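Record type: ASSEMBLY
Status: queued
Input:
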Amino acid sequence: MTVQKDKLAFVINTASYERVCFALGLAAAAAATGKDVRILFGHGGIVRLKTGCTNMMGEETDSWVRSQVKWGLGTGRLPFISELLEALKKLGSKVYACPTAMELHQIKQEQLVKEVDEVRSLVIFVNDDMKDASTLYV
Amino acid sequence: MSEFHIDDRLDLRGVLCPMNFVKAKLKLEEMESGQMLEVTLDDGEPMRSVPRSIKEEGHKIVSVQKTDANAYRLVILRGQD
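Status: finished
Output:
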């Protein structure tokens, strides 16, 4: 298999704020430097794509980092996840929601944030988005 | 007082990697080739990485001025697409 230098696929399977934020920051850096970026939110991460939950911080975020994250958000040093998603869309990246994860979390398509391009199954993501890409699992 | 005609400004003080570069990139994408963007950046890591990434995108940094002990003001000439 040939891996394209300029194609990155991200599988985000956590909702913990600092992990999602860092992964999307990495994706944004890649997209801003011209890479083709595809992101799938799976079981652990899908809640971040539900309207009203994108920037929440509760038990899904490891307790030991919550205070740092709150400080970072309060001082503008850390971006909101919604801000990263918006930037990624402007940079041409694709954001997908896993249908199985949506089912498990009882999230309907109309509840997804506007930055989601489509609901995309793992099989299609593997065949279309991970194909020839470097894949990062978070 | 800048010697350049500045078309837009962006204050990125307090904004960390990668959002400082991402915000600069998105602002430059909104602008026309040949226009000037003034960006204010913190000293340290932002000054080491953002100007380099902007140049790699094909834009030109035409002026760098230290504004105080902790910040720099850059004037960027927006390059071709």
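Annotation: Chain A touches chain B at residues 25-26, 28-29, 32-33, 75-79, 83-84, 87, 90-91 (CB under 8 Å).
Annotation: Chain A has a mean pLDDT of 95.
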